[in-house]
Amino acid sequence: MRVLVIGSGGREHALAWKISQSPLLKKLFCAPGNPGTAQVAENVPINETDITGLSEFAGREKIDLTVVGPELPLTLGIVDEFESQGLRIFGPSKKAAELEGSKIFAKQFMERHRIPTARFKIAETDDQALKIINSGTFGFPLVIKADGPAGGKGAVVCPNMKKAEETIQAIMVKKQFGEGNTRVVIEEFLRGREASFIVISDGTQVQPLVTAMDHKTAYEGDRGPNTGGMGAVSPSPFITKELFMQVSSSIIFPTITRMLEEGRRLRGVLYAGLMLTEQGPKLLEYNCRFGDPETQAQLLRMESDFLEILLSAVFENVLSRKVRWSAKVSGCVVLASGGYPVRYETGKVIEGLDQAEAIPGVTVFQAGTRMEKRMLVTNGGRVLNVCALDTNLAGAMGKAYEAVSAIRFEAMHYRRDIGCEREEAG
Ligand code: AMP
Ligand code: GLY
Fold first, then answer.
1. Number of C-alpha atoms within 13 angstroms, CB side, residue 1?
2. CATH class of the 2-91 domain in this structure
3. Beta bridge partner(s), residue 123
4. Domain 120-188 is of which CATH architecture?
């Protein structure tokens, strides 16, 4: 088979790495990819949002399956475009991807189908938003979310009136979260632990991935601004068998079934971002793509042929084979540029990668990297994902941090508490 992976982050390096192990694979491309994906695939210089360019390439190169990493091409309708050309692609249609693309659609969907989530209200104007906040319905802290895609920075926890007013100004008046982002969701703040629950769906059935825990904030002890994720471990220490069943029946199955009934068949990934509250698991958000960096930790544990699983979702028989997972534990530490997620510099020379990768059980996935004068340099906020697999969590994190200590670049920043169980929000 000829396969194309779309994207250029650590998640896409992990997707390409796992697909490259499939006996079904003849040729793998990645667009645009990074120096890490270049080790397992041929990089093609087409941007992830250039849907016409990508579909022309897939047609010309007779690609049998395209796998989409990031959300933006999905919400732009890449799946609809590929399918209209008779090209096979793994991912949700534009209509189904609205679950991720519009927070308002997602919250109204949850409300319509009684899927447990935080209480919320929608504001169309800044006056309305301030009225809702002033009414005291939610108290403080409360959470304000921009409706549309905002590069992962669309949710702001506001501890007081000042921050809430600033956030409303930033989103609704100054349009700092994107021109089209004019409406907001205002919701109650939930306390508890966060967990990610990720499945592959064919639109009617689901194949759960092993559980994973992401560490969202920039600094240790759950402090600092939210990021795309500073590390992950799999399995999640907090998702018990009982909770797994509860989340499946109260959140995952109703979502898949109701989406189908609403004419928005969800084929691809369903990623539920959960808060485990005292009243049970509640849904913070939906994503329609694999997690980053959860995927890196999860795929290290997959023993089955990943390409076969992706195909079974596309062919709408996702339960046709049993997926085998390693009983081992995996961990992933994100090495970021100093200043991420706010302001950071790029172009810093990365050293020590070979020594890190030589440690048994260690795999390094590349994210924001590029080659410059035959040297690997930083090229983004999240730079490398240092991952390890071992029989237990302490072993996996020990190896991952040993590998981290071999790597250097100017202003390198990472969390030293990935996998620590005290992670708790609120
Ligand atoms: P979202 O984009 O909706 O997933 O929000 C991003 C992050 O903001 C989440 O991972 C949480 O850390 C935090 N967050 C979002 N909504 C809430 C909420 N209702 N209560 C507490 N924290 C929240
Ligand atoms: N790690 C969080 C996400 O992928 O959304």
1. 19
2. alpha beta
3. 184
4. 2-Layer Sandwich (3.30)
What is the residue extent of each domain of the chain? 2-91, 120-188, 191-320, 329-420
Contact 381, 340 (CB under 8 A): yes
CA 329 – CA 395 distance, rounded (Å): 8
Which token pair is 291? Answer: 């997690």
In this structure, are residues 15 and 69 in contact, taking their beta carbons and an 8 Å threshold?
A: yes
| Residue 426, pLDDT above cutoff 70 | no
Q: How far apart are CA 269 and CA 208, in angstroms?
A: 10
Name the least confident of 81-90, 115-124, 169-178, 245-254.
169-178
Ligand 1: which residues within 6 Å by Cβ? 118, 143, 145, 154-155, 157, 187, 189-190, 194, 216, 226, 273, 284-285, 425
* Ligand 2 atom at minimum distance from 214 CA: 1
Average pLDDT over the chain reads: 95
Candidates 207, 215, 264, 260; CA nearest to 238 is 215
pLDDT in tens, 213-243: 999 899 999 898 889 999 999 999 889 999 9
In ligand 1, the atom with minimum distance to the C-alpha of 189 is 20
Find the helix or strand (DSSP H, E) in which 197 lies. strand 193-202
> Counting atoms of ligand 2 from 1, which one is nearest the CA of 291?
4
Q: CB of 44 within 8 A of CB of 32?
A: yes
Quote the CA–CA distance of 250 and 105 in Å, as a whole number: 19
What is the fold, at CATH topology level, of the domain defined by 329-420?
Glycinamide Ribonucleotide Synthetase; Chain A, domain 4 (3.90.600)
For 3-41, give one letter per residue: b (16+ CB within 10 A) or e: bbbbbbbbbbbbbbbbbbebeebeebbbbbbbbbbeebb
Where do we find the tokens 């992830």?
A: 48
405 SS3 class = helix
- At the top level of CATH, the class of 191-320 is alpha beta
- Nearest residue to 314 (alpha-carbon basis) of 130, 122, 90, 86: 90
Nearest CA to ligand 2 atom 4: 291
